[in-house]
Specification:
Elements: H1 2-39, E1 41-45, H2 67-70, H3 75-84, H4 92-101, E2 106-112, H5 138-149, E3 152-158, H6 184-201, E4 205-211, H7 220-233, E5 238-239, E6 281-284, H8 302-314, E7 318-323, H9 333-349, E8 367-374, E9 377-384, E10 392-395, E11 402-407, E12 418-420, E13 426-429, E14 440-446
Parallel strand pairs: 1-2, 1-7, 2-3, 3-4, 4-5, 6-7
Antiparallel strand pairs: 8-9, 9-14, 10-13, 11-14, 12-13
Length: 452
């Protein structure tokens, strides 16, 4: 009987310790994600030697960062771009300042894209920035500029590598390169060494953003192993879900909980509904290409981009907006203009984006909503796209006691009149509010958490 009691007692202890361990693990993950959830808005930079042809090859002008694969350029011919890459106009401080003025809180730059070319001084390869006429470590200069300006630097690093002799599979069209002697396990050793360089030589790195995991040579086991390896190197590092095999296409979310990765990565799309309890980030281009294409003039408007940012925040996600710099080291003029115009809106209304949570409303016909705790109360931020003709902003079904309402663009803040209809609809009188470009934000403070 005593043995039975001891066995039960030991089992309870094990269960208790397992629960505590799980809660601690969950808490640590939450802690390291805090700055990222607060940030909500980041800059994506796709930059490499593919900016030299600027999207054009043999009369075709539709290429981007995939040009080596898409145009089927032999490796020796592609390597010629290294000799032509000389971004003499690159100024790290200017880049970081543009991101900061746009309201962005972190930068994710391609340390290495699928072509294998490294934008840093890597001891593991000569196919890097130090082999170009430029001979300056791009990532070192960006790291220093980010430290000076309080920006978090992050790296995009491709698992796929079309240049390394050990990476498999080969491209089917590569008649000049056989797979003889290639060893994928040896390539993974190389990959880990490069990632260690990035995490130890460039200051505080916030995120490792992986891509290229979809080929058969990359497995769930390899993804989990790489995730664990990086987590030991840097416990506070955030790693996207493309380190593993669980991503469901461009929707970017994991198929199940067994896959490694701290956040989902929808690409060129925004989930239709929020994803409660799940971290995710929509990455998107300003035009049709990630890498610089001189002929691509299909630019999204600043209004479109601001409203995308709002829509993403209203669903609890982050927005990673891309710029493809030129081979000279400058942002295209259209990108600069859009970053500036987004920044003007963010200076006035960033409070409704940073550190907010998803909307408690299922749908609002005239715009979006984000929310933020204020002590025991809640501030609801209503981003109005379609201005009410009668000057009354209708808020459906909210039962809380109403404390105050005001427009973020009014200084000093002027209290707005709020009333409730017999059917329970709250009406905020916005007839005296000046409308902002892109979206006007009305804040409503309520007692407690939203009740419907």
């Amino acid at each position: 009987m005593l043995m039975k009691k001891l066995l039960v007692f030991n089992l309870l202890i094990i269960l208790f310790l397992s629960t505590v361990s799980f809660k601690l693990k969950e808490s640590k993950q939450s802690d390291r994600m805090d700055w990222w959830r607060e940030a909500r808005f980041g800059l994506f930079l796709h930059w490499g030697i593919y900016s030299v042809p600027a999207g054009e090859w043999k009369g075709n002008t539709t290429y981007g960062e995939w040009i080596r694969e898409s145009a089927q350029i032999p490796i020796k011919q592609y390597e010629e771009f290294v000799k032509q890459f000389n971004p003499v106009k690159f100024n790290a401080d200017e880049w970081v300042a543009m991101a900061k003025n746009a309201g962005m809180k972190y930068i994710v730059i391609t340390s290495k894209h699928h072509d294998g070319f490294c934008m840093f001084d890597s001891k593991e390869t000569d196919f890097d920035i130090m082999s170009t006429p430029f001979k300056r470590d791009i990532l070192r200069e960006l790291s220093d500029a980010c430290a000076r300006q309080g920006m978090t630097l992050c790296f995009y690093h491709s698992i796929m590598d079309w240049h390394h002799p050990d990476y498999l599979p080969r491209r089917k069209w590569e008649s000049d390169r056989t797979a003889e002697g290639a060893d994928m396990d040896r390539y993974i050793v190389h990959l880990k060494k490069q990632l260690k360089e990035l995490l130890t030589n460039y200051g505080n790195i916030g995120v490792l953003w992986f891509d290229g995991e979809w080929e058969d040579t990359w497995t769930h086991e390899r993804g989990k192993d790489l995730y664990d390896y990086l987590r030991k190197l840097k416990p506070n590092l955030i790693i996207n879900n493309r380190v593993d095999k669980g991503r469901s296409g461009m929707a970017g979310m994991n198929k199940g909980k067994s896959y490694a990765g701290d956040f989902g990565t929808p690409e060129q799309e925004i989930p239709l509904t929020g994803l409660p309890g799940v971290d995710w980030e929509s990455c998107m281009t300003m035009n049709d290409n990630w890498g610089y294409n001189k002929n691509d003039q299909k630019w999204k408007s600043s209004e479109n981009l601001v409203r995308k940012l709002i829509d993403i925040a209203s669903k609890g996600g982050n927005f990673l907006l891309n710029v493809g710099p030129t081979s000279e080291g400058v942002f295209p003029d259209a990108s600069i203009q859009r970053l500036s115009e987004m920044g003007e809106w963010m200076k006035m209304n960033g409070e409704s984006i940073y550190g907010t949570k998803a909307s408690p409303f299922q749908k609002l016909a005239w715009g979006r909503c984000t929310q933020k705790a204020k002590g025991q109360n809640t501030v609801l931020y209503f981003q109005v796209f379609d201005w009410p003709a009668d000057g009354q902003l209708a808020i459906p079904g909210l039962k809380n006691k109403l404390l105050e309402a005001y427009a973020l663009n009014s200084h000093p803040q002027k209290q707005l009149l709020v009333s409730k209809s017999p059917k329970g609809t709250i009406n905020i009188n916005v007839s005296t509010v000046n409308q902002s470009k892109y979206a006007t934000v009305i804040a409503l403070e309520i007692q407690g958490k939203p009740l419907f």
